[in-house]
């Protein structure tokens, strides 16, 4: 058996204005007809490996209704709600608490729960070959279940990307005759994590051949991850003890109240820092699968089809886009007509009545614009209702 946990609570502020706190990037669709959001695609990928009944989503309370609507194949209780964002370590810990109790309620034995491989997956990434990626996940699950190792996925870099995290691997592939389930994976010992290097370091990483993009995917037996939380993040894990008690008593409202109290006391932390970087035996599976975390408008352009001049266009609701003497750019519009004349390497984004224009090479700086827009919206006086 396999269990999938899809994390769907991120904000995606670097894709403003199409991604907002009320409707973050996991609800965006790369196809113009909006038939499938990134979140829906992520759930489909997870269910292809674990099955719909064993796929869970975790998100913030404010997004829960939209998340459930995007994944109608999942039962309401398969969507786990955080009171507010606290990064990935608390998010996964809370999800573990709920998943274990749900499996117990289904009649799973403690041994079954302990040995079952759990996949922790992002909801807002783009995968070029879905079938190949699903096969990679399945093989990594089998490997982790057999060895009880923690396995993370790394993608072979194709450029010196400064917007991604990296995993340094050692130089010796691990291929054991005994680990039959692992034999088909390109496994290495993980040496360290490096978060978003500058351009010079990213070029060094690419030239070394020892660094992989961090795909944000973790696979390990449930029992192993539970033990690592208790070993490396005991205060965080202890904060959820009252929640566990309430769930076992069948007191859903009490569990919700105790979760809110726990979140008021815990500090934000990523699972990479809190757990994964602490492991001496962490392994990374290297892959060249087509992947991007869609963390900037430059990454969106890379994921979209481009014309002969290198322009990518995403136009919804019948919007017209005209590019005259322009190259290597991006237009994203949810309805407004857009015309560009004589500009290269530019992003023009029109969404929700907001417009962003920037060079693609500065796409990583969009978060600052999003924060400024949010501050302005917070202080802008609301128009008075028409009294006539």
UniProtKB/TrEMBL annotation:
It holds the Pfam family NTP_transferase. Residues 4-307 form the Nucleotidyl transferase domain. Residues 323-367 form the MannoseP isomerase/GMP-like beta-helix domain. SUPFAM superfamilies: Guanosine diphospho-D-mannose pyrophosphorylase/mannose-6-phosphate isomerase linker domain (SSF159283), Nucleotide-diphospho-sugar transferases (SSF53448). This is Sugar phosphate nucleotidyltransferase.
């Amino acid at each position: 058996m396999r269990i999938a946990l899809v994390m769907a609570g991120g904000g995606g502020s670097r894709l403003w204005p199409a991604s907002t706190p009320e409707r973050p990037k996991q609800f965006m669709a790369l196809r113009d007809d909006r038939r499938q959001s990134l979140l829906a695609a992520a759930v489909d990928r997870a269910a292809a490996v674990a099955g719909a009944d064993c796929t869970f989503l975790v998100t913030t309370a404010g997004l829960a209704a939209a998340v459930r609507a995007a994944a109608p194949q999942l039962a309401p209780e398969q969507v786990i709600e955080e009171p507010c964002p606290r990064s990935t370590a608390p998010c996964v810990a809370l999800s573990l608490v709920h998943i274990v109790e749900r499996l117990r309620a289904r009649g799973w034995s403690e041994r079954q729960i302990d040995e079952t491989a759990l996949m922790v997956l992002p909801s807002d990434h783009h995968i070029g070959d879905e079938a190949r990626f699903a096969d990679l996940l399945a093989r990594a699950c089998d490997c982790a279940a057999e060895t009880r190792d923690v396995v993370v996925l790394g993608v072979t870099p194709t450029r010196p990307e400064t917007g991604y995290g990296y995993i340094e691997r050692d130089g010796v592939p691990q291929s054991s005759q005994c680990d039959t389930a692992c034999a088909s994976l390109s496994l290495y010992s993980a040496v360290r994590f490096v978060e978003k290097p500058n351009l010079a370091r990213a070029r060094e990483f690419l030239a070394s051949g020892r660094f992989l993009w961090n795909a944000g995917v973790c696979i390990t037996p449930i029992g192993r991850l539970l033990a690592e939380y208790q070993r490396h993040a005991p205060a965080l894990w202890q904060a959820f003890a009252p929640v566990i008690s309430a769930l076992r008593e069948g007191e859903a409202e009490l569990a919700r109240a105790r979760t809110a109290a726990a979140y008021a006391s815990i500090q934000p932390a990523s699972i990479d820092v809190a757990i994964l970087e602490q492991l001496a035996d962490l392994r990374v599976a290297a892959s060249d699968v087509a992947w991007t975390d869609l963390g900037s408008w430059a990454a969106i352009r890379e994921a979209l089809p481009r014309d002969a001049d290198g322009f990518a266009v995403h136009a919804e609701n019948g919007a017209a886009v005209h590019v005259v003497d322009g190259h290597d750019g991006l237009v994203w519009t949810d309805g407004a007509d857009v015309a560009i004349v004589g500009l290269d390497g530019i992003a023009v984004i029109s969404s929700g009545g907001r417009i962003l224009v920037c060079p693609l090479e500065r796409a990583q700086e969009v978060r600052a614009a999003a924060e400024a827009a949010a501050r302005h919206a917070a202080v802008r006086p609301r128009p008075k209702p028409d009294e006539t």
